[in-house]
Structures are given as C-alpha cells and as structure tokens.
Design brief:
Elements lengths: L16 H5 L30 E10 L2 E10 L5 E7 L7 H12 L3 E5 L14 H7 L6 H16 L3 E11 L1 H10 L5 E7 L26 E6 L7 H13 L3 H5 L1 E5 L16 H17 L4
Parallel strand pairs: 3-4, 3-5, 5-6, 6-7, 7-8
Antiparallel strand pairs: 1-2, 2-4
Length: 295
Amino acid sequence: MHPDAVAFVSPSDPKSELSRRGFIVTALASGFALAVQPVSAQSLISTPADGLLAGEISIPVKDGKMPAYRAQPRGGRNLPTVLVVQEIFGVHEHIKDVCRRFAQAGYLAIAPELFARQGDASKYSDTRELVAQLVSKVPDVQVMDDLDATAIWAASNGGDPGKLAVTGFCWGGRITWLYAAHNPLVKAGVAWYGGLIRPGTDLQPQSPIDLVDALKAPVLGLYGAADTGIATDTVDKMLAKLAASSSPAAKASEIVLYPDTPHGFHADYRPSYRAAQARDGWARLLDWFSRNGVA
C-alpha cells in the first residue's frame, strides 16, 4: 500500500491499528486537502491570528484524545462558543481559517477532527474514494459524542456553556441539523448546504428531516438552488416539515435558498465559491447567533 493511502480498520478488530492506538490521526493536516488541489488562490481568504489564541489542541474523549483546531480572542473569558464542523475534507486550512474568522468576531471557535479514528481525509486525492473508504465509515453516534466532548472542553477553556452554537459545511451541514436535535445546550445552528434527505445506513441511520420534531435549537439552513447534490424539492419538503412540526425550535428554523448558486458556495478556495452569497450567508449567521442568544 502506498504510504499516503488510508484504509478503514474496524474498531472491533483487536489486531487493528485503531484498536491499539485509539486514533489513526493524532495531529491535524497542514495546508489543504489533496482532493481540492489546486486551490483557487485568487479568491482565497486568509484571516490573521493577530490578537488570537489559535492553534491545535487535543480534546479528551472516552477512548483517547482527538485533535482539533481552536481560535479565540487572547485572554477572553466566558466567550460565546461555536463548534465548527468540517466538510468531507477534514480540518484543513479552510476550516481553520473559518475558526479564526469567528475568533476575530469575539467567539471561541473549535473544529474537532471528527474523522480521526477512521483516517486522514487530507491524503485522499479522489473524492469518491474519500467518501467510500472514510466518510461513510464514520458513525453518527461517534460524531455526537465527540461534539459533546468538544463542548465540554470549551466550557473549561474560556467558553460560556450557556452560549453554545454549531455550524458546519456540506457533510458538516447535515451534522449541524443532527447536533441541534441532540444537545439541549445548543442555542442555535447554521447548516451550510448539508444534505436533508437520503437513505440511511447502519452507521448513519437518520437524515435531518427525520429529526425535525426533535430539534432543540433553531437552525438556519443556507442552500444553493443550483446544487446538483441537494435537489430543491428536498429543501421544499424540509420547509414543509419544519412548518408542520410541534417543536418550537423547528418552527423557528429557516432556510435560505440562493438562486443560481452551487454547492460549496462558501468555500473560497474552490471554483464553487460565490463571494456575494458567502458574505450574505456569513452576515445572516452572525445575526442568527445574536438573535438566538449566542452572542
């Protein structure tokens, strides 16, 4: 096997490296994931760390330590906290930059590497292989537990546990909906183009539309009408389910559908980036957090 290849190893196999070490990935990748190369440098946003405490940390979890990226105003206390959930490419430079953007806005932002047990997403050059061999092997229950552990770490390291939010992109957009239905401490969520309806699997059994009635915090969904992977009719079905729900959080949730806009429109390092929609979405996010008691 090529040294950069990543194979899934079952945690139930006592001979597996995962069983012996707990985690395959123990440190964050540098730069950008191979699958997104070459990076679109002309639109790339680079947020400085001036005045910030920013860098890699380790989050204690029940089976070891999970790498994560943290950014917060230096010396800040009782900060509003946002959990930043990665795309399928892992916690690479774009996600780290998003954390710094939050920190420059006064937040404690943390992006845990939620694929750390299954492999290193940054080493895959083919997106389909990445999804099949790694992303599809990540159990939802594991992700919920890891985000809980991240929230606990934040509360002991400068964050205000009463001001907790979650946001995520693509794969992380779906997780945002799930986590808003999982953790009663979450005040608000913002899901960027996360799938809403899809067939379940043993490891990922439910879609966001299945959990509408369980929502504990209102979610703002930001979607593109030209997204070839998320049909607009699924957005319509989600809106109808939210409106019909008896859950106050569901009724308070909203979805913005940007016309003629593709998937990944916030990703400034990719050709899918749309500056106007990304800026509008970011402004809506900050307002959403403020209106729902996070900021």
